[in-house]
Amino acid sequence: xxxxxxxxxxxxxxxxxxxxxxxxxxxxxxxxxxxxxxxxxxxxxxxxxxxxxxxxxxxxxxxxxxxxxxxxxxxxxxxxxxxxxxxxxxxxxxxxxxxxxxxxxxxxxxxxxxxxxxxxxxxxxxxxxxxxxxxxxxxxxxxxxxxxxxxxxxxxxxxxxxxxxxxxxxxxxxxxxxxxxxxxxxxxxxxxxxxxxxxxxxxxxxxxxxxxxxxxxxxxxxxxxxxxxxxxxxxxxxxxxxxxxxxxxxxxxxxxxxxxxxxxxxxxxxxxxxxxxxxxxxxxxxxxxxxxxxxxxxxxxxxxxxxxxxxxxxxxxxxxxxxxxxxxxxxxxxxxxxxxxxxxxxxxxxxxxxxxxxxxxxxxxxxxxxxxxxxxxxxxxxxxxxxxxxxxxxxxxxxxxxxxxxxxxxxxxxxxxxxxxxxxxxxxxxxxxxxxxxx
Length: 439
Ligand code: SF4
Ligand code: SF4
Known about the structure:
There is one protein chain. With 439 residues, the protein is of the alpha/beta class. It has helices at residues 7-10, 13-24, 36-41, 48-61, 67-74, 81-85, 92-106, 111-123, 127-140, 159-169, 202-206, 208-220, 236-240, 244-265, 275-281, 284-287, 295-304, 308-313, 335-340, 346-353, 374-377, 379-394, 406-413, 423-430, and strands at residues 184-185, 193-197, 223-226, 269-272, 305-307, 328-331, 357-360, 400-403, 420-422. Strand 8, helix 23 (406-413) and strand 9 form a beta-alpha-beta unit. Helix 12 (208-220) crosses helix 24 (423-430). The longest helix has 22 residues, at 244-265. One iron/sulfur cluster binds at residues 25-31, 48-49, 82, 85-86, 88, 90. One iron/sulfur cluster binds next to helix 3, helix 4 and helix 6.
């Protein structure tokens, strides 16, 4: 794609990067076929190619984002299916990240929306606040029925629709908190390695059992696990809301905390059980590339980050339960894992090797609609995608659904009675742990 940035514009490293990305696009449109919003809405401006044109225009003219740009970028899930499909290697993720930052900086949203986004950015990354908010929302769930139904003619998501979506996603009760930061879990038997396990923010409130399963599996296989003190939310949630300063501050804090742990006792990996977080941590090196003090350590941290299944694939696992060839598992490929990190085969292989009957889900490239805060901010599209996903999952008649991302697990569990569990919970079960409970 031909671009027309001035030399002065190209002196800005972000614009130089956008220029490189835009030039790689040959407008072939292959990406449209696998873009969930284009598949649902059929509007070119809700396709990757259409959005790329909108972003090009905004960046080249250096103008404030228009209503159209905001509408169509807000509707993008950042699922990155387009990046998997694109034959020219267009780095859509880094382009749309820039657009979101511009929108946050230069576009004045209506006051209620500004407030909602500010609350999400403040509450979601802080486990204490998130726990309190979930308790409140859980208690208020019965009131969801009293909320007026948004008019069918509404072209934009309404505040009432978003409130209803938040109440619907809130759990009726919360589990006890998991182990505190700073704890170290000793390897059982001969020590073969030492890793940090990302504690996460929303996940540690909604489902601490996931990281407990990871600790069980890792220690059982001779890996010492540390929950690093002073670690924070990875920044993914605020990053996707375009709040760059907040996301970068969290990235720097984590790079500092993990680097100190590496200096202290060493780490073979930073293991992540929430693939949305893993994608962003693997991108810290890029996010902090212009920061003289942090560029090198951030790149080192990114190189150490591994999805739990990637890490386990590198060690020999020991299934102890009798073969689970009676348990049919539908594997839901989280977008952040399959498109963001290109981890596609490993989780299914691990499940098969540990005795489960693994079924691929039709249209597995399409997002379930969770996408960070997307299901709260764009509930109509998110629910349509969820229902499509659930129909596809149901077609393989599973006993259980496995996924590697808490956001997907909550989203899918909201529309099915089939138990939804994390991949690591099944691996824990197969290697001597408890049978997993669903959301
Ligand atoms: S597939 Fe890639 S090159 Fe083709 S239009 Fe989409 S982004 Fe551009
Ligand atoms: S990230 Fe997903 S929703 Fe956004 S343009 Fe790409 S395929 Fe479409």
